[in-house]
Write a structure and sequence with these properties.
It is found in: Cell inner membrane; Periplasm. The chain has 381 residues and is α/β, with parallel strands linked by helices. It contains 14 helices and 15 strands. The strands form three sheets. It has a seven-stranded mixed β-sheet with strand order 4-6-5-7-14-8-15, sandwiched between helices. A five-stranded mixed β-sheet has the order 11-10-12-9-13, sandwiched between helices. A three-stranded antiparallel β-sheet has the order 1-3-2. The longest helix has 20 residues, at 271-290.
Length: 381
């Protein structure tokens, strides 16, 4: 997930690092970065075998191809399933959908800026960064995709209650990333003191790449972790216990973990193609909810194709259940997540006005007899 770095840390660490975002234009030396929470590398996914263009189908807006990007992990399940089952292509007619995968938000934002992709599934912090860095000129958030899927998993022999977290070593994916900020905010709510940058204090916050967190847990170098799926379920498979589901800390147990973005230029030039992709997303989410077992299998089949192996049942089964796929971008929670980072001293309050354009999505929802979704006052005027 994306990370927010403090000015002091960014100034001290100049060496290149995979997943680092450039500093915000509005705040020199303050950068948002993305930890390696993806489970694959940038690549073309190829055809799933179900993404066939129907005979007699016509191109939308006269466009040959729409280029779509996403991460090969479960919080991007809408894109995984929609790609695997050919549900986006069905809505696009003879306009061919092509796909690229990314394991870091910065590279996806760069791809959007360079027109290597047109539309992408991405986490909240890189969307905030991409929008703010360009002074509101490069992207819009046009829809929601997923909520939840983040947990505090601990060693039950060492931690038996939430109060027992004090004095322990808890991993987060990266300094300032979405889960790191959430954990720091929770610690503050407990009345404990932790230096946000160093992670030292009443709790030792250990920034650890999601890919190695399970090994760190097995070795005993950490006592638990505040992490997204499927890392959380991997820890449970190693004997960990879910002590807290982050969803329980949010109103209605919902908070944004994945959104859909589009380049503003592409949205202006090809609004009907954008609507078609959003229609495919809405129908994919409907299919996921109506066919949970088939949808989980489809997502895992795509992960196997992309990563070389599927997730085992003991990991994907609980992980899939903890993620809610939603068309609503949960705009109010995006603002709250930014506020948490500001309170932690890791981010200067960004200007998010105009980050959303939900008119195309609400048009699709209205046609489907569904209620409109809200931009929490952060929509384009």
């Amino acid at each position: 997930m994306p990370a927010i770095r403090s000015p002091r840390t960014t100034a001290r660490r100049r060496a290149p690092h995979r997943g680092r975002l450039a500093a915000l234009t509005a705040l020199p030396l303050l950068a948002l970065t993305l930890s390696a929470c993806g489970y694959g590398s940038e690549a073309d996914s190829g055809d799933s075998g179900k993404a066939k263009i129907a005979a007699g189908a016509k191109k939308i807006d006269g466009l040959d191809t729409v280029k779509i990007g996403y991460f090969p992990n479960l919080t991007h399940g809408t894109a995984l399933v929609g790609d695997q089952e050919g549900l986006f292509q069905k809505e696009l007619g003879a306009t061919k959908a092509t796909y690229s995968q990314f394991n870091a938000g910065p590279s996806e934002i760069e791809a959007l800026n360079s027109k290597s992709i047109d539309i992408g599934w991405i986490g909240p912090s890189p969307a905030i960064n991409g929008y703010t860095k360009s002074q509101g000129k490069n992207l819009r958030v046009i829809g929601g995709s997923a909520s939840g899927g983040v947990k505090l998993v601990v060693n039950p022999d060492k931690i038996k209650s939430l109060d027992d977290v004090k004095g322990k070593k808890i991993a987060t994916p990266q300094l300032g990333n979405t889960q790191d900020v959430a954990f720091l905010n929770w610690i503050k709510g407990k009345g404990w003191d932790v230096d946000a940058e160093s992670g030292k204090g009443d709790v030792s916050v250990v920034r650890t790449d999601n890919k190695i967190t399970p090994d760190a847990y097995k070795s005993g170098s950490i006592d638990g972790a505040w992490v997204p799926e499927p890392t959380a379920s991997k820890l449970v498979a190693e004997g960990g216990k879910v002590l807290l589901d982050e969803a329980d800390l949010w109103p209605d147990k919902k908070f944004v973990i994945t959104n859909i973005i589009v380049s503003q230029e592409f949205l202006k030039k090809h609004p009907k193609v954008v609507e078609a992709v959003l229609r495919g997303s809405v129908k994919t989410n409907q299919w996921i909810k109506a066919n949970p077992a088939k949808a989980k299998a489809a997502a895992n089949a795509k992960l196997k194709q992309l990563n070389g192996k599927p997730l085992p049942p003991e990991v994907i089964d609980p992980a899939w259940k903890s993620i809610e796929f939603t068309d609503d971008p949960l705009a109010a929670t995006l603002g709250t997540e930014a506020d948490h980072a500001v309170k932690a001293g890791l981010l200067k309050k960004p200007d998010l006005n105009g980050i959303y354009d939900l008119a195309p999505l609400n048009k699709v929802l209205k046609a489907a007899g569904r209620p409109a979704v809200d931009d929490a006052g952060l929509g384009v005027k």
